[in-house]
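In response to a reviewer's request, we include the raw inputs and outputs for one of the modeled complexes. The two entities were modeled together in a single run.
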Amino acid sequence: MADPMRIRAQSSGDKATVRVLMSHEMESGQRKDASGKTVPAWFIQEVTAKHNGKDVFSAEWGPAVSKNPFLQFAVKGAKAGDKIAVTWKDNKGDTRTDEATVS
Amino acid sequence: MQNRRETLKQSAVVAGLLATAGFPQFAYAAFNKAAFDAKSVQDSAKAAGATSIAESKDVTITGPDIAENGAVVPLGASTALAGVKHLMIMVEKNPSSLVAMFHVTDAVEANFSTRAKMGQSSDVYAVAIMNDGKALWAKKEVKVTLGGCGG
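The model returned the following C-alpha coordinates for the whole complex.
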Protein backbone atom coordinates (compact mmCIF):
# COMPACT_ATOMS: atom_id res chain seq x y z
CA MET A 1 0.00 0.00 0.00
CA ALA A 2 1.27 3.37 -0.92
CA ASP A 3 1.81 6.27 1.42
CA PRO A 4 -1.16 8.48 2.30
CA MET A 5 -2.07 11.50 0.22
CA ARG A 6 -1.96 14.97 1.63
CA ILE A 7 -5.23 16.72 0.94
CA ARG A 8 -6.10 20.29 1.80
CA ALA A 9 -9.55 21.62 1.05
CA GLN A 10 -10.22 25.27 1.72
CA SER A 11 -13.56 26.96 1.25
CA SER A 12 -13.69 30.41 -0.32
CA GLY A 13 -17.09 31.87 -1.11
CA ASP A 14 -19.38 29.29 -2.67
CA LYS A 15 -16.63 26.85 -3.64
CA ALA A 16 -13.79 24.93 -2.08
CA THR A 17 -10.32 24.67 -3.53
CA VAL A 18 -8.88 21.20 -3.11
CA ARG A 19 -5.15 20.61 -3.31
CA VAL A 20 -3.84 17.06 -3.30
CA LEU A 21 -0.30 15.72 -3.10
CA MET A 22 -0.11 12.03 -3.89
CA SER A 23 2.83 9.80 -3.20
CA HIS A 24 3.61 7.77 -6.30
CA GLU A 25 6.63 6.86 -8.38
CA MET A 26 5.01 7.77 -11.75
CA GLU A 27 7.53 5.81 -13.80
CA SER A 28 7.22 6.99 -17.40
CA GLY A 29 8.22 3.80 -19.22
CA GLN A 30 10.86 5.82 -21.10
CA ARG A 31 13.79 5.43 -18.72
CA LYS A 32 16.37 2.68 -18.89
CA ASP A 33 18.11 1.08 -15.93
CA ALA A 34 21.87 0.47 -15.57
CA SER A 35 21.75 -2.70 -17.68
CA GLY A 36 19.98 -0.89 -20.52
CA LYS A 37 16.56 -2.43 -19.96
CA THR A 38 13.53 -0.19 -20.10
CA VAL A 39 11.92 0.42 -16.72
CA PRO A 40 8.24 -0.52 -17.16
CA ALA A 41 5.71 2.28 -16.86
CA TRP A 42 4.01 2.58 -13.48
CA PHE A 43 1.71 5.55 -13.10
CA ILE A 44 -1.64 6.71 -11.74
CA GLN A 45 -4.30 6.23 -14.39
CA GLU A 46 -7.48 7.38 -12.77
CA VAL A 47 -8.19 9.98 -10.13
CA THR A 48 -11.65 10.51 -8.73
CA ALA A 49 -13.02 12.72 -5.98
CA LYS A 50 -16.20 12.60 -3.94
CA HIS A 51 -17.89 15.45 -2.14
CA ASN A 52 -19.95 14.10 0.79
CA GLY A 53 -20.08 10.71 -0.95
CA LYS A 54 -21.17 12.07 -4.34
CA ASP A 55 -18.86 11.79 -7.36
CA VAL A 56 -17.81 15.26 -8.46
CA PHE A 57 -14.47 14.95 -10.20
CA SER A 58 -12.66 12.43 -12.34
CA ALA A 59 -9.53 12.55 -14.43
CA GLU A 60 -7.36 10.24 -16.49
CA TRP A 61 -3.64 10.65 -16.34
CA GLY A 62 -0.79 9.54 -18.52
CA PRO A 63 2.77 8.71 -17.51
CA ALA A 64 3.85 12.31 -18.16
CA VAL A 65 2.46 13.56 -14.87
CA SER A 66 5.29 14.26 -12.42
CA LYS A 67 6.50 12.00 -9.66
CA ASN A 68 4.52 12.52 -6.44
CA PRO A 69 1.76 14.27 -8.37
CA PHE A 70 0.08 17.49 -7.39
CA LEU A 71 -3.50 18.22 -8.31
CA GLN A 72 -5.71 21.23 -7.78
CA PHE A 73 -9.40 21.60 -8.52
CA ALA A 74 -12.38 23.49 -7.12
CA VAL A 75 -15.64 21.96 -5.95
CA LYS A 76 -18.69 24.19 -6.30
CA GLY A 77 -21.03 24.41 -3.33
CA ALA A 78 -18.69 22.79 -0.82
CA LYS A 79 -18.83 24.34 2.65
CA ALA A 80 -16.64 24.09 5.73
CA GLY A 81 -17.14 20.73 7.41
CA ASP A 82 -17.91 18.87 4.17
CA LYS A 83 -15.95 15.74 3.38
CA ILE A 84 -13.79 15.45 0.25
CA ALA A 85 -12.50 11.98 -0.56
CA VAL A 86 -9.88 11.45 -3.26
CA THR A 87 -9.11 8.08 -4.84
CA TRP A 88 -6.40 7.10 -7.29
CA LYS A 89 -5.83 3.89 -9.18
CA ASP A 90 -2.57 3.04 -10.97
CA ASN A 91 -1.85 0.86 -13.98
CA LYS A 92 -0.86 -2.06 -11.74
CA GLY A 93 -4.30 -2.02 -10.15
CA ASP A 94 -3.14 -0.50 -6.88
CA THR A 95 -5.56 1.96 -5.36
CA ARG A 96 -5.75 4.34 -2.44
CA THR A 97 -8.42 6.61 -0.96
CA ASP A 98 -7.93 9.43 1.52
CA GLU A 99 -10.41 11.85 2.98
CA ALA A 100 -10.18 15.43 4.19
CA THR A 101 -12.58 17.92 5.75
CA VAL A 102 -13.14 21.31 4.13
CA SER A 103 -11.88 24.11 6.36
CA MET B 1 1.56 -34.76 -30.85
CA GLN B 2 -1.29 -32.45 -29.92
CA ASN B 3 -4.69 -32.79 -31.42
CA ARG B 4 -6.91 -29.87 -32.23
CA ARG B 5 -8.99 -30.14 -29.07
CA GLU B 6 -5.99 -29.83 -26.77
CA THR B 7 -4.62 -26.88 -28.70
CA LEU B 8 -7.89 -25.03 -28.38
CA LYS B 9 -8.03 -25.72 -24.66
CA GLN B 10 -4.54 -24.35 -24.13
CA SER B 11 -5.27 -21.21 -26.10
CA ALA B 12 -8.26 -20.55 -23.90
CA VAL B 13 -6.11 -20.93 -20.77
CA VAL B 14 -3.50 -18.52 -22.10
CA ALA B 15 -6.15 -15.96 -22.99
CA GLY B 16 -7.55 -16.23 -19.49
CA LEU B 17 -4.15 -15.66 -17.94
CA LEU B 18 -3.54 -12.61 -20.07
CA ALA B 19 -6.84 -11.14 -19.04
CA THR B 20 -6.38 -11.69 -15.30
CA ALA B 21 -2.72 -11.50 -14.37
CA GLY B 22 -0.51 -10.53 -17.25
CA PHE B 23 -1.92 -7.28 -18.48
CA PRO B 24 -3.61 -5.22 -15.79
CA GLN B 25 -4.23 -2.38 -18.26
CA PHE B 26 -6.94 -4.48 -19.92
CA ALA B 27 -8.91 -4.31 -16.69
CA TYR B 28 -9.75 -0.63 -17.19
CA ALA B 29 -12.27 -0.26 -19.92
CA ALA B 30 -12.83 3.36 -18.94
CA PHE B 31 -9.23 4.41 -19.45
CA ASN B 32 -8.91 6.08 -22.84
CA LYS B 33 -5.75 4.35 -23.96
CA ALA B 34 -5.95 5.56 -27.55
CA ALA B 35 -5.81 9.18 -26.46
CA PHE B 36 -2.77 8.59 -24.26
CA ASP B 37 -0.96 6.54 -26.90
CA ALA B 38 -1.49 9.12 -29.61
CA LYS B 39 1.73 10.88 -30.50
CA SER B 40 0.51 14.30 -31.57
CA VAL B 41 -1.83 16.91 -30.14
CA GLN B 42 -4.35 16.50 -32.98
CA ASP B 43 -4.40 12.73 -32.72
CA SER B 44 -5.09 12.65 -29.01
CA ALA B 45 -7.81 15.26 -29.31
CA LYS B 46 -9.48 13.15 -31.98
CA ALA B 47 -9.14 10.00 -29.88
CA ALA B 48 -10.90 11.85 -27.07
CA GLY B 49 -13.85 12.53 -29.32
CA ALA B 50 -13.10 15.88 -30.96
CA THR B 51 -14.46 16.49 -34.44
CA SER B 52 -13.12 19.95 -35.25
CA ILE B 53 -10.20 21.79 -33.74
CA ALA B 54 -9.85 25.55 -33.39
CA GLU B 55 -7.84 28.03 -31.36
CA SER B 56 -9.81 29.93 -28.72
CA LYS B 57 -9.20 32.87 -26.42
CA ASP B 58 -11.64 31.43 -23.89
CA VAL B 59 -9.33 28.58 -22.96
CA THR B 60 -6.25 29.37 -20.91
CA ILE B 61 -3.09 27.47 -20.22
CA THR B 62 -0.92 28.52 -17.31
CA GLY B 63 2.70 27.56 -16.88
CA PRO B 64 6.16 29.05 -16.43
CA ASP B 65 8.02 30.73 -19.32
CA ILE B 66 11.17 28.90 -18.33
CA ALA B 67 11.18 25.66 -16.36
CA GLU B 68 14.48 24.87 -14.73
CA ASN B 69 13.59 21.27 -14.04
CA GLY B 70 11.65 19.44 -16.73
CA ALA B 71 10.62 16.74 -14.26
CA VAL B 72 8.27 19.10 -12.43
CA VAL B 73 6.60 21.73 -14.59
CA PRO B 74 3.48 23.24 -13.03
CA LEU B 75 0.79 23.43 -15.71
CA GLY B 76 -2.81 24.49 -15.44
CA ALA B 77 -5.78 24.52 -17.79
CA SER B 78 -8.96 26.48 -17.35
CA THR B 79 -11.89 27.83 -19.29
CA ALA B 80 -14.87 30.04 -18.58
CA LEU B 81 -17.00 28.47 -21.29
CA ALA B 82 -20.14 26.50 -20.51
CA GLY B 83 -20.70 23.02 -21.91
CA VAL B 84 -17.17 21.70 -21.60
CA LYS B 85 -16.90 17.92 -21.43
CA HIS B 86 -13.16 17.31 -21.07
CA LEU B 87 -10.21 19.53 -20.39
CA MET B 88 -6.85 18.18 -21.42
CA ILE B 89 -3.25 19.23 -20.88
CA MET B 90 -0.77 18.29 -23.57
CA VAL B 91 2.94 18.74 -24.18
CA GLU B 92 3.67 18.74 -27.89
CA LYS B 93 7.18 17.29 -27.92
CA ASN B 94 6.73 14.55 -25.32
CA PRO B 95 6.80 10.94 -26.58
CA SER B 96 3.03 10.91 -26.25
CA SER B 97 1.59 14.36 -25.97
CA LEU B 98 -1.39 13.90 -23.65
CA VAL B 99 -0.47 14.48 -20.01
CA ALA B 100 -3.82 14.54 -18.26
CA MET B 101 -7.49 14.56 -19.15
CA PHE B 102 -9.96 16.03 -16.68
CA HIS B 103 -13.67 15.32 -16.90
CA VAL B 104 -15.70 18.43 -16.22
CA THR B 105 -18.96 18.06 -14.31
CA ASP B 106 -21.45 20.58 -12.99
CA ALA B 107 -20.00 20.21 -9.51
CA VAL B 108 -16.44 21.27 -10.28
CA GLU B 109 -14.99 24.36 -11.91
CA ALA B 110 -13.27 23.92 -15.25
CA ASN B 111 -9.97 24.94 -13.75
CA PHE B 112 -7.37 22.30 -12.96
CA SER B 113 -3.68 22.32 -12.31
CA THR B 114 -1.07 19.66 -11.92
CA ARG B 115 2.61 19.09 -12.59
CA ALA B 116 3.98 17.48 -15.72
CA LYS B 117 7.22 16.04 -17.00
CA MET B 118 8.70 17.60 -20.13
CA GLY B 119 11.53 16.05 -22.11
CA GLN B 120 12.55 19.29 -23.85
CA SER B 121 11.38 22.83 -24.57
CA SER B 122 8.02 22.64 -26.24
CA ASP B 123 4.64 24.20 -26.73
CA VAL B 124 2.11 23.14 -24.12
CA TYR B 125 -1.60 23.02 -24.95
CA ALA B 126 -4.83 23.23 -23.03
CA VAL B 127 -7.59 21.60 -25.05
CA ALA B 128 -11.24 21.86 -24.11
CA ILE B 129 -13.56 19.33 -25.70
CA MET B 130 -17.08 20.70 -25.78
CA ASN B 131 -20.28 18.69 -25.50
CA ASP B 132 -20.89 19.13 -29.25
CA GLY B 133 -17.51 17.58 -30.13
CA LYS B 134 -15.66 20.82 -30.90
CA ALA B 135 -12.15 21.11 -29.55
CA LEU B 136 -10.85 24.52 -28.53
CA TRP B 137 -7.23 25.02 -27.66
CA ALA B 138 -4.73 27.49 -26.34
CA LYS B 139 -0.97 27.13 -26.29
CA LYS B 140 2.04 28.50 -24.53
CA GLU B 141 5.75 27.95 -25.01
CA VAL B 142 7.70 26.57 -22.07
CA LYS B 143 11.49 26.46 -22.23
CA VAL B 144 13.10 23.62 -20.32
CA THR B 145 16.72 23.86 -19.24
CA LEU B 146 16.94 20.31 -17.86
CA GLY B 147 14.88 17.51 -19.40
CA GLY B 148 12.66 15.42 -17.17
CA CYS B 149 12.20 12.10 -18.89
CA GLY B 150 15.55 10.66 -17.82
CA GLY B 151 17.44 8.46 -20.17
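As requested, we also summarize the result in words. DSSP finds no helices and seven strands in chain A. The radius of gyration of chain A is 15 Å.
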